[in-house]
Amino acid sequence: MKIVVTSGKRKTAVAKAVIKPGVGRFRVNKIPVEIYQPEMARLKILEPIVMAKDLAKQVDVDVEVNGGGFMAQAEAARTAIARALLEFSGDEELKKAFLEYDRTLLVNDIRRKLPKIQGGRGARKRGQTSYR
Q: 4-105 sits in which CATH class?
């Protein structure tokens, strides 16, 4: 039995996907992806599954994701799922389709939050200065 483990990251969210032969069950933190909330995050997670078509009906995927916000978790989960499907199938056309649609399906998004800087409330905000 072939089992593949992959990971995906976005901001501080980290997702680990385990894929094995099955009947098409996709779970994120033990919740079936069909009832995952909010809907916008669910649609993000479903992108690689929809693109994989027949392959998605032959495998079961369990994703564990933690850290970050709900959208960062969804994007980390979709990266992990896409990598798992690609590694499980070894299909070059699927890889080409993923990269053509969105590069972040296979490559982690390395952007991070800008740190707070002294002299202001945040990364960019500063106290006003007066010269009179």
A: alpha beta
